[in-house]
Amino acid sequence: MKTRTVTGTLFLVALMFNLGVTRVYAQREPVNMTFSGNGAPSTINLQYPATTTSEENVNGNGTLGWFTFRNVTAIAAAPSQQPPIICSGPTRLYFPRMAGAGIFRFQDGSLLTVELTQGSDCIDLVAQEGNCTLTLKITGGTGRFNNASGTLTYTETAKPVLADAFQNPVYFTETGKITGTVFGVAMHEDWGDDRQ
């Protein structure tokens, strides 16, 4: 009888431990973060037809903690002749983003990787600013994001700081927010959850 009781107790302890670990790693985390930084043409060439490659380098804070984010994307080299209504008009230019990826690095050293699924820039020539929206699919990561999945929306306002010899803006300030949901985040004291 004692052996059966000890075995049953060990089984229950093991089951409770496994359920606890699963709970730690199966977190659903709503994301709300803000950022600022810069954007410019990239030295990386994605070699996507009829595009130029640009990148954003920003940092910020929010529900997942302090972070830096570098994103490289292929943007259509010429404006679309059929922009959506929200970006139509004689003083606006619409540039679809065709492909790309990015890496978030958090203060605890964890990385979160994303891939562009959809994106565009709407340039307002009168206001001299661009509005960018990217839909980013989470593809995994390291540390607390080892099993991460989900979707993030990156929304940014860019303003030119420097133009090239042809007066084309090439360097921008960027501010904005990132929203969405991350699944499979390990929220455990060992990861140094650095939310403020």
Helix and strand arrangement:
Elements: H1 2-25, E1 27-41, E2 51-62, E3 67-76, E4 92-106, E5 111-124, E6 129-141, E7 149-163, E8 169-185
Antiparallel strand pairs: 1-2, 1-8, 2-3, 3-4, 4-5, 5-6, 6-7, 7-8
List keywords for this structure.
AOC barrel-like; 1 helix; single chain; eight-stranded antiparallel beta barrel; 196 residues; mainly beta; elongated
How does this model look, in words?
A hairpin with a 4-residue loop joins strand 5 and strand 6 (129-141). This protein has a single domain (27-191), classed as Beta Barrel (AOC barrel-like), CATH 2.40.480. The chain has one helix spanning 2-25, and strands at residues 27-41, 51-62, 67-76, 92-106, 111-124, 129-141, 149-163, 169-185. With 196 residues, it is mostly beta strands. It is 12% helix and 57% strand.
CATH class: Mainly Beta
Strand neighbour order, sheet with most strands: 1-2-3-4-5-6-7-8
Q: How do the helices and strands follow one another from N- to C-terminus?
A: HEEEEEEEE
Low-confidence residue ranges: 19-25, 189-196
Mean pLDDT across all amino acids: 87
**Judging by the overall fold, what is the CATH architecture?**
Beta Barrel
N/C terminus separation = 53 Å
Structural class: mainly beta
**Strand percent estimate:** over 45%
Please tell me what the overall shape is.
elongated
- Count, helices: 1
Helix content: 10-25%
Specify Rg, calculated over alpha carbons: 22 Å
Overall tally of domains:
1
Q: Tell me about the biggest sheet?
A: 8 strands, antiparallel, barrel
